[in-house]
Design goal:
The complex is a heterodimer of chains A (about 350) and B (about 270). In chain A, helix 3 runs parallel beside helix 5, helix 7 runs antiparallel to helix 9 and helix 7 packs antiparallel against helix 11. Chain A has about 350 residues and is mostly helical. Chain B has a single domain, classed as P-loop containing nucleotide triphosphate hydrolases (Rossmann fold), CATH 3.40.50. Classes of the chains: A mainly alpha (about 350), B alpha/beta (about 270).
Chain lengths: ~350, ~270
Amino acid sequence: MPLREPAGGGFRPGRLAGICAALLGLLLLVLLAGLSVGAAPVRPWVLLSRASNGEEAARARDILLGLRLPRILLAAVVGAALSAAGVTFKAVLRNPLADPYILGVSGGAALGAILTAAFGAGDGTASAAGLIRSLFAFGGAAGTLLLLFALARASGRISNTSLLLTGAVVNAFFSALILFIITVVDYTRFQSVFFWLVGTIEPSGYGPLAATAACVAGSLLGLVLLSGRLNLLSLGDDEARSLGVEPDSIKKLAIIAASLATASAVSMSGLIGFVGLMVPHATRAVLGSDHRSLLPAAALGGAIFLVAADTAARTLLAPVEMPVGIITAVCGGPFFLYLFQRRRAREMGG
Amino acid sequence: MSCLQARGITFSYAHPGRSRPGAAELPPQIRNVDIDVGEGEFVALLGPNGAGKTTLLRLLGGMLRPLTGSVTLFGQVVDSLGLAQKALWMAFVPQESRPTFDFSVLELVLLGRWPHLGLLGIEGKRDVEIARESLRFTGVVDLAGRPFGSLSAGEKQRVLLARALAQQARVVLLDEPTAFLDLGHQVRIYELLRRLCREFGTTLLVASHDLNLAGRYCGRLVLMHEGELVRDGAPREVLTEELIRSTYGVEAQVRHDPVAGPIIIARGSPP
């Protein structure tokens, strides 16, 4: 049963602020935990003690501030982006199964990443290779979005069915291209890309992190401003129109903002699955369907979840690291089935 | 004074210029319709399936654009009015509403306040008060905290009606509001509509399949057939045995009772 008061008094900004403050607190805790554990036995409070000798303190600082901190921050940004995009796509497409990858943005990004590996741009230093791959992946995602709008424009109104079908076709087409490239080019080149395709958070510099965070923050702000209109969209086009909102223009803005968030996230961390599918449903089960609360809460929830999942990914089998996409899928699959079963049981029971 | 007016509107779902050569001969769904609805009237739009009732409602409600002709609301052309302004004057009650995700009843009714809210779309105390008042009027205020999806068809229809009330529009269009309801709920919905019309002077245009109920509660009936208006007038003038035969293809016996209004008994399809 959703946590709304029985006699509910409508949307209250104060209540949302309380929820967000609680989630922010939880996020800080998870971030601190993520900063504290890792392959090397370094704890963050080392930074606070002045008594430590020079060399050891420098090494600890390198690990904490150079590796762990940018990584957990990236996980938070990516998790927030994927989860908020998931909420948005579900509302815009009026489809509970929609996730950030449903319109083919992921396929475009993957193609871009594969191309960098195929043409040897992945050689050279690791961070330069990662940056080039991110740029290509972002380009692929943005290109897909443009293609999608060009196709939608050609058919007049933006219909959900044609968007979904176009997305599915685009994803299938890009998968075929990717397989073709992998077949034609020496496949040993693709080992690093393989992790990326499953979804993995790698240590990145603060520069790319800041750029990603800025893109994601901009998109999230846009989506929060649109969130009230997403409520109307989920009623259907006719009802939205009769309540004074033109669905097509809201859909367009929402898809652009959500896709920008997705593209930024995917270009840094690859195709992490299940966050955008699952966290929105879990948040909705607790808070109800009002997107004005749901969207910011789900973004924070996604950040918490992905930081926790990435911390697990790099500590469970330490010193071996798993791609975080494996963790999200392993947690996500069963959880999703549980939610689904529970809902069915509730519907059957009336 | 006429508040909702259509002049010479034509509409076809087949896109002109895009349809295949054969498809161009499809008759348009709405052909050259003129209609005037006066302020405070309770009008029923009748006609068999496919006659164009829902299409005409969507055209009048600005959800579709006519190919030719124009629709005016309080003297303003609906197309140039802007959806937000239009929503302040005219509400629409769909046959059924299926939100993708479940809202509580109060949340759904509060969406009716959207045209009145500011840029951020955050409702205030007064909006919640109006939403509750609307739910009280339609008799479902006790359900305010319930998920909309868990309600019965009759309760859902009352909630949708409450949303239209919360919109505080002077004109309300309803698309077969009693389509899924049993006799008791049908009667209570029409009684609510009549109260709405009498107590608040709301103008109502309701598409309906139920000739008896429409004839009993609405002062004026408009009968459609194949995209055209075939008769417009008092129940006695519209609900005749000849017209029912020529539009619905049914032999019927019609009696006009001074108290209960028209009584129509279908006797079968013509030989």
